[in-house]
Fold each of these.
Amino acid sequence: MHNLSKLNWLRGLRTLFRRNKPNIPAELWQSCVNRLPFLRNLPVADLARLKNLSEQLLATKTITGAAGLEITDEIAVMIVAQAALLVLNLTLDLYEDMPGIVVYPSAFLVKQKQMDGAGVMHEWGEALAGQAIDAGGAVVLSWEDVMGSTDFWSRRNVVIHEFAHKIDMQRGRANGCPRFLAGYHEGLQVETWQRVFAAAYNDFRRRVLSLERPLPDHPALAEETLRQLHEAGRRPLPMDTYAAKNPAEFFAVASEVFFVAPSGLAIDYPDVYRLLARYYRQEPIAAPTETPNSMRMHL
Ligand SMILES: [Zn+2]
């Protein structure tokens, strides 16, 4: 019977309301919102819509625990609330080809392989905080890293990162230029998007390479990178160096800071900020929650 109260609602939801949209209990919703600082001051009407979208995600997507993780109500709601934020003013159709979300307790190993110049295939295991699988695949998350993103000062957000990839995969493989939707993105042009993002990506990559350090190969190094920059008296980068890996990662990492700590992005790459605001149809810089993050950005 242990833990039953925690799990009761979600289990009941799956058996009793399989075909209908569930109502997330108000207390559970509020406790999750309180733990996501970038949601706290969303206007009431936006929060109500976010709850509604979260409930639709719970009703239509499976959330599966892996490596022994039991999915609690809290885990489910914390994840769908953040996934819903990206499409708050868009449509859940953007997640249509995603059957569900798989959650590991912590970073998970994924087998990688690459052919070298001599034609020899190398295989190794890479520990990931999250992964978005294209061609109708799932989003895979490490719960430990999801929780790490809820820190008040964090600029990283693994849920937003992976769901931004999922949105970017509407055309196939992620490339940093998501498909524009009729009825939502009139006036946005692919050529403008590609020109603005390519210029920002190239500039950001130059800045990162000028650090004369190897690029981190894992998002978890973000805070360490920031601290080292700060200690060295360098102007902080507006987002994690992982964005310099390729244009798809630039879009996903820029989407993270757009929602979580947008001031540095708006200052350093205002055209990218404006295009993201037009794509997501949101203006997070105006939200009062921005103040603490912007304070941090200008330390
Ligand atoms: Zn990524």
Amino acid sequence: MIEHLPDRLDLYAMAEAGRELRGRVDLASLERLLPVLGSPEGELQVTLELGLSHDGTRYLAGTIKGALTLQCQRCLESMEYPLDVRFQLGLVHSQEEMRKLPDRFEPLLVSQDPTCIADVISDEVLLTLPIVPVHTDMKQCQELATEYQTPDLGQRENPFAVLAQLKHK
Ligand SMILES: [Zn+2]
């Protein structure tokens, strides 16, 4: 069974110890991500690997998988956006450590440990999102627009159909 990840993790200590974690994170708990979501329903699957690299960098590597509901900026209907994010962060305490970090790591400035893991995950997801999300195929926008109009027309006709039936009785 895959459990929820803890809210906060002591990243430096876990990197020293070399720990791996796998768990679920509710979208609703990712506060920094919420403003861009069409719906806070759902969860993401997250794996985290903490360790010490051969050159002495304490790192947090991981994957984030799942799907988000975003609002298409062309038709304004919701769209599912699949996530498959990989990241490799080097833990740093200061700007100076950040400058020394090997290129293959993105810096994660740890100002206080334990670190709010939801913020780290939110930031990694935000980095991968398009600035203006739109359905990949413009046809999808047109189809959605048609789908949403049809039931409306049906509902508008219904009361008249009922009235017509009454008149005939
Ligand atoms: Zn669209």
Amino acid sequence: MTEKDHGCRTNAKPAGKEPLGLSRRNLFSAIAIAAGSIGLSSIATSAQAASKKYKVCATKDIKVGGGSIFKISAAGGIQIMVTQPKPGVFRAFNPACTHQGIRLSKIAGSNILCEKGHGAAFDTTTGKVTRGPAQIALQKYTLTVENKSLYVTLNS
Ligand code: FES
């Protein structure tokens, strides 16, 4: 049997260069992966360091089964919708409808309604879509209760 008979010879690279070429490629891949990992962890660390708590309102400002929208001036005027679906249970959402961004304006029962838009509805506890045309849940924020006041945690 000759080398041509088993077909290995036609696609083979010069034996003396391939190990070195693969080694370089692997080295560059490893460097790229390491750099990416370092970059991502730096971003995550920066995000954690940049998150900050802002006072939104007093707990008594939100009625059970209701909600209100507050503008957080200290955080660049960002708007936060706070709901209290059950006594002592508070939630915070971005009040922009996920369909086309119209500001949500009304709470009816356990739903936040996009009355000025196209009629979408979102759950006051989870922010999940309960009626379309929106397909995506509301953006949630971390809300904490301290000394009868509500604080939202935002990334700056
Ligand atoms: S913008 Fe809210 S349903 Fe269209």
